[in-house]
Write a structure and sequence with these properties.
This protein is α/β, with parallel strands linked by helices and about 600 residues long. The protein contains 23 helices and 13 strands. It is globular, with a radius of gyration of 30 Å.
């Protein structure tokens, strides 16, 4: 107290001496400077560390929203200049990590504020990583407490339970458009619609895959925005702003063209193709069959724009956002915060069924992920000890049919991914499957980078853990799916793999255990139980697709209304339909 009085007294005496010299120009200038300095001290005390002060306090508790985002963005620059780009990786770095600040310094902070982007129709932007939004126009953001922001985040309209009493109901002449980079997922959808749904639904399958010649589904080279698909592949499937605009503007130039008669657009692989189609206002069926961020995985801005667009898509009730496996469902929810993502697994009914006539047990890796020879020899030796013959599939056959696979008593599958079409195919044939346990599969990964395709960065050769985007504030998962070299993270995320989720799949912790399990198992009983589950799957998947088609049909009149009032440019249409002004921010 006495020290404070002395300080105040000293300040007043200084002011008094300067007031006596006000008649001189230098004296007036000195007085003005001193008063400005003292006022700045007082204002700084009331505004707090995130006001106009240059304080580097780690406590983001005071100041306006604009002050807050400026401070957060300045921290982003500091963090980006650090060798460790993610402040969460350095718990001792209190100044750079706003999650680690001393909350005792912020006695009035009660709620965590997060930015929420609110364009037309309450469609919200992605607002994960507010520190990373320096390139965005922050005037579009409203800062609200986290609890409120998550409550107003647009939730996808849940898929209604299928009414079996109305199972005979049909809708005429529905047409679905697909331009995928993978032939298998869309082929499975076509098979489900033709064989099990049995409604009058046509799928225009213009494949961009290099395997399209085998399927006979190659897209014409004249598709708007997709003419040079080879260049798109070289760009890791990133749909640039120019391509999105060309795709939309090219289709609307021909009002009587093929797209005019389309009722819905299907995007499997890659999901970001729907960024181009979303401006057309037709129902979108987005099904993540692998990590949804392909094409946007190596850029913060591109990934955030994809998240923003998916949130806008989810907000419209005619659209469906789904995943064909639980890993990708939770991966999508982790980064986007989208609720009610639909689980819509692939069926992959091959027409071949379990009929064992062979003795060998095939061991399946993949063409690009050959099982290491010394590992196979150890597995083979364990099989011989139990009187079993294990052989690599590629050594059993040069070419094989599905019925060839179904003729073996069991198959050992060494999966390289959490969801692969091969698993769906083998399961649909009711072939007993034996797979490594999560612990053993993680060991393979640490030794051989076996699960490299869990992340796109690692798929393209960048396997070091780099959390380019962190969890959405409205998602609640304990581990980052990008952290594929961490045992706890992998133990959590591997549980969502298809082969650990489907019943009647046997896991093993060692080669000896695998051999004993196959020798002692009632393989025909396992196959019968798989067949029973497959019957349930067919009914379940068919019901979901019928519900989706009903939603598409219900949206037809609104789609036609939008089609009649298309804006001349992609930017104008995105603004009119979604309220998104900056559809193409810098860097996207």
């Amino acid at each position: 107290s006495s020290s404070s009085s002395k300080n105040n007294s000293g300040e007043m005496s200084v002011l008094h001496r300067f007031s006596q010299s006000m008649t001189s120009t230098g004296g007036r200038l000195a007085a003005i400077l001193l008063v400005t300095f003292l006022c700045g001290m007082v204002i700084g005390q009331f505004r707090g560390p995130l006001g106009n002060s240059s304080s580097s306090s780690p406590c983001p508790c005071d100041g306006s929203a604009a002050d807050r985002v400026r401070a957060e963005n300045s921290r982003s620059i500091d963090n980006d200049n650090n060798q460790n780009n993610n402040p969460n990786n350095n718990p001792n770095n209190q100044n750079n990590n706003p999650n680690n600040f001393d909350k005792s310094l912020c006695p009035q902070q009660e709620k965590e504020l997060v930015p929420v982007y609110l364009p037309m129709d309450s469609s919200l932007d992605d607002f994960s990583n507010p520190r990373r939004l320096a390139s965005r126009n922050t005037s579009s953001y409203m800062y609200v407490d986290k609890a409120r922001s998550c409550s107003i985040l647009p939730k996808q309209t849940p898929l209604e339970p299928f009414d079996s009493a109305a199972s005979q109901e049909t809708f005429p002449d529905l047409t679905i458009w697909s331009t995928d980079f993978h032939v298998s997922p869309v082929a499975d959808v076509k098979h489900i619609l033709k064989t099990f749904v049995k409604w009058n639904t046509k799928v225009i399958d213009y494949s961009l895959s290099s395997s399209c010649t085998q399927a006979g589904t190659c897209a014409p080279r004249t598709l708007p925005g997709l003419e040079d698909r080879d260049k798109l592949v070289r760009g890791h499937l990133h749909l640039t702003c120019a391509r999105r605009a060309a795709l939309y503007e090219g289709h609307i130039k021909d009002p009587k063209g093929e797209m005019a008669g389309v009722d819905a657009i299907l995007c499997n692989h890659a999901v970001n193709l729907c960024q181009g189609y979303m401006a057309l206002g037709k129902p979108l069926i987005v099904i993540a069959s692998t990590r949804y961020n392909i094409g946007n995985h190596d850029s913060v801005v591109q990934w955030q724009v994809l998240n923003r667009d998916l949130l806008a898509i989810a907000a419209r009730p005619e659209n469906i956002i789904a995943a064909n496996n639980l890993f990708d469902l939770h991966y999508l929810q982790y980064f986007t915060g989208i609720a009610n993502v639909v689980y819509l697994p692939s069926l992959c009914n091959t027409g071949a069924f379990y009929k064992p006539t062979m003795e060998e047990i095939p061991v399946m890796g993949t063409q690009n992920h050959a099982f290491p020879r010394h590992e196979f020899e150890a597995l083979q030796a364990a099989g011989l000890a139990e009187g079993l013959t294990f052989n690599l599939l590629k050594e059993l056959y040069v070419h094989y049919s599905y019925q060839d696979l179904a003729s073996h008593p069991a198959i050992i599958l060494i999966p390289y991914q959490t969801s692969i079409m091969t698993f769906f195919e083998l399961y649909s044939m009711n072939v007993p499957l034996f797979v490594p346990s999560p612990r053993l599969l993680f060991q393979y990964h640490m030794k051989y980078n076996w699960l490299s395709e869990l992340t796109w960065a690692c798929t393209f050769g960048q396997c070091d853990y780099e959390p380019i985007l962190t969890q959405h504030p409205c998602s609640h998962y304990p581990h980052d799916p990008l952290n594929h070299r961490d045992s706890k993270a992998m133990a959590f995320w591997l549980q969502f793999a298809d082969y650990y989720q489907f019943p009647h799949v046997t896991t093993f912790d060692s080669y000896a255990q695998a051999a004993r399990a196959i020798r002692s198992a009632d393989l025909r009983s396992i196959s019968q139980r798989m067949a029973a589950f497959n019957a349930e799957r067919i009914e379940h998947i068919t019901g979901k697709w019928k519900t989706i088609l009903k939603r598409v049909h219900a949206a037809r009149s609104n789609s036609l209304r939008i089609q009649r009032s298309y804006k001349p440019t992609y930017a104008e249409q995105m603004r009119a339909l979604y309220g998104i002004d900056d559809f193409c921010p810098p860097g996207s």
